[in-house]
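Running co-folding for uridine-diphosphate-N-acetylglucosamine.
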Amino acid sequence: MDRIRIEGGRPLKGQIAIGGAKNAALPLMAASLLTDEPLSLSNLPHLVDIATMANLLGQHGVIFGMDGSEAGNGGHAGRVFTLTAGEITSTTAPYDLVRRMRASVLVLGPLVARMGQAKVSLPGGCAIGTRPVDLHLAGLAELGAEIELKEGYIHARAPKGLKGAHIVFPKVSVGATENILMAACLADGETVIVNAAREPEVCDLARCLVAMGAEIEGIGTGTLTVVGEKRLHGATHAVVPDRIETGTFAIAAAITRGDVELVGVERAHIEAVEKTLIEIGVEIAETAKGIRVKAEGNDLVGVDIMTEPYPGFPTDMQAQFMALLATTKGAAMITETIFENRFMHVPELARMGARVNVHGASAIVRGVPHLSGAPVMATDLRASVSLVLAGLAARGETIVNRVYHLDRGYERLEEKLAACGARIERLKD
Ligand code: UD1
């Protein structure tokens, strides 16, 4: 497996372009199952998770094109992608594909809504907690689907079609909101989703569904009202910029006490992250193309963070902030409220000299004057990138193992960092 080697201690300077959001792209791709007409997605990031979703959709009968033409033998690569689910050839999402990526469960709602049935493997456990799908299933059951769990699979049936319903989620879930939102677009009558997730990726999906002919009100609020249609049609949609990639590179600038312009960002989506960076002592200014993040010569200090559903501080930025706070003055408390077991980067950061104590869902981070390079490894995407960030700041050499996780969510990470002066390279095995 590839590794990444970093020689730390160089302030980053330059420009970094932000790509389309992985977490928006995945549900948008699944939405192609709702219509027999082409759905064209631009600004699609080139990532392993996107290829995994393309494989799954291909197996359901979706045909892919690039810029309107067939992708051919080259597979599914490319930034403008056209997905056409003219005919659904299989309503089964097999274990072998679903186990690779939890977001595969997003095909469930669209398949039941359009085909009246679906058999989707249960995603199973995951490194950052149990992450059940009970809210997805309860929502579909309220829309009239019969749900049965058998031999590791979710069997969902609605032979007479789904029916609109009033669904109150007991807890905010991004994936469950997306699944039910897609299903409700083809249900008979009105569906109200109360306590819906308000994440920008959910809004991006909703806007694309509207472009496909869906009637959705309340986009960006906690209550979504959907009036079901008999059918949806094709559309063209640009994937929203990745707010987590934006935040991650902002930390890269901050942790190396550098000065970097992030190009193509959606600033409104990073408010909580931006506010926290400013409290820490990082300067952020708007530029013609995006934002400039500057920490050169600044005295950075520890602040407390608590993860929350959007518009609160994102759990997907928690690990990266921990790396930064390991290098700032004073103490900081980080509380994780979304996922249990999302502190797996702590022992690895500790190997690089970070001083972190975990008590239940909170971690106390005491800043140290400098981190030191070490061989490290992580078990999930954002934890892995936090180690890369720590490596950029650390004295000496850091080797990050299991680069596989990074490739799931960051496109050309080492190239983008190297272009700003980082000494970073990929070691092929
Ligand atoms: C999405 C993001 C992920 C992010 C997370 C929270 C994608 C592809 N992934 O994941 O990067 O970290 O939102 O912002 O968009 N839960 C239940 N029952 C359910 C569903 C969820 O109890 O049926 C719990 C989860 O275990 C977790 C919480 O709800 O504790 C939030 O999870 P959810 O918002 O569903 O996360 P995902 O959609 O899986």
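Result summary
The pocket of uridine-diphosphate-N-acetylglucosamine is lined by residues 23, 26, 102-103, 129, 131-136, 171, 173-176, 201, 315-316, 338-339 (CB under 6 Å).
The chain has 14 helices and 25 strands.
Job closed.
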